[in-house]
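Entry 12.
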Amino acid sequence: MRSLSPRTRRGKVVTIAGVAAGAMTAFFVAAAATNWTVGINSGSDGEAQSATISNLTVTATASPTAGNLLYPGGTGDVVLTISNPNIFPVEVTGFSVPNDATFADGYSDSGLSSAQAGCDHTNSAVTWAGAVNGSSANLTLGSNLVVAAAVGASPGTLHVTLTNAAAMGAGAPLACAGIYLKMPGFTNVAATGGGSITPSNDPAATTLS
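Predicted 3D structure (tokens):
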């Protein structure tokens, strides 16, 4: 059999490579857009949908524990959890509290399930420190609280200490010593949702006045 000279072999390699390159070029030309441009009809559009807005839930909690404890004529911390069921973060700037004649209920346990005899909303003398006579008061947080968005069915949560936000009157009965108190419910909240806001570190602490 006649062998090919190195020069001939190189020529065949070059020829084969050239054929392969030509095939690849033809493929990309076929896959590229054609010269036939296509427009779009007037009124062409798409549809988006906005999220619903759900209210926050604020609940009493035993953790973190209150650092400042109540006594007759003094103030103490209030601890609570804010839950956000929305798909966007929510920034809380304040709460509204009932008047200063609306007292807290006493409980013997931190879960607030066993009522304390002799210390309830009729005589505990425990109110929100910023409460006023005769009407609800709109109080402002010392620093805003941002509650994270929900993840799936799990709401975003933030554990909060409101420093010295509760007050105990001098006439509080002895039965209110050494117990837990469920503060009067908030009457409203000042909060907005959405935007590029960073959730607060959990747990958080601020004032309410």
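Annotation: Confidence is low (pLDDT under 50) at residues 8-17. Residues 57-206 form one domain.
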